[in-house]
Design the sequence.
């Protein structure tokens, strides 16, 4: 209490590693990715919902630009990876998945201590040392897969904010620091205490499930404008702002 907190009024300095496409793929994995198996057979995937299917070719091209550089066993040519269909969600929304062993191996090269699962906990050193393009791509992938746009109020008093909800408070605070590198000020709020809640069980009924505590990172006006000007959005959210 009583201390003065100085916030960036413009962009900070960036490193020199990584491309926009690499950052995009990493951001998508952190926001909506999954892994399967461990060790040399480990696989990693990213998912895309039908609202963003217009970007399928762009995302596949970015991923294939990465995985084709990963070494394979022997001289076998595994070719490009492609999208596969997932089972529709309960409300009928379609989604597709892409990835595999080589995506997992690439993620190992940019994860701290080659621990792919740690990418879901904290931003890795590769992001903090990344180029401006890499960090922008990372935020693009993150907000496309895990962010949402909220309108509040009516008429001339209506406001728009950008938000990400997560149960991992340290991870959100890492994103908060990354945003500050572009002069974007955001806040992290506690939204839900941990405990059991009655939720749909996937079979038409409801059941008590244990839920972790939840937090929400919020970018409010006028920082939304700063975000759009310096970082921007991709996919279906791009047209909203």
Sequence:
């Amino acid at each position: 209490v009583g201390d003065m907190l100085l916030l960036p009024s413009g962009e900070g300095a960036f490193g020199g590693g990584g491309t926009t496409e690499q950052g995009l793929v990493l951001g998508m994995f952190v926001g909506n990715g999954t892994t399967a198996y461990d060790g040399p057979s480990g696989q990693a995937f990213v998912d895309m919902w039908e609202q963003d299917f217009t970007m399928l070719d762009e995302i596949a091209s970015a991923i294939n630009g990465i995985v084709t550089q990963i070494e394979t066993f022997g001289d076998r040519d595994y070719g490009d990876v492609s999208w596969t269909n997932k089972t529709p969600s309960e409300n009928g929304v379609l989604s597709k998945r892409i990835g595999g062993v080589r995506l997992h191996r690439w993620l190992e090269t940019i994860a701290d201590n080659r621990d792919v699962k740690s990418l879901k906990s904290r931003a890795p050193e590769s992001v903090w040392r990344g180029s401006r393009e890499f960090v922008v791509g990372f935020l693009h992938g993150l907000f496309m897969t895990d962010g949402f746009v909220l309108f509040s109020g009516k008429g001339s008093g209506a406001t728009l904010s950008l938000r990400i909800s997560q149960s991992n408070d340290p991870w959100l605070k890492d994103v908060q620091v990354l945003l500050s590198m572009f002069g974007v000020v955001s806040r992290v709020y506690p939204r839900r205490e941990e405990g059991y809640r009655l939720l749909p069980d996937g079979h038409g009924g409801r059941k008590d499930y244990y839920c972790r505590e939840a937090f929400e990172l919020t970018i409010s006006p006028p920082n939304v404008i700063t975000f759009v000007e310096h970082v921007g959005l991709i996919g279906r959210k791009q047209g909203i702002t």
Notes: The longest strand covers residues 159-166. The two ends are 36 Å apart (CA to CA).
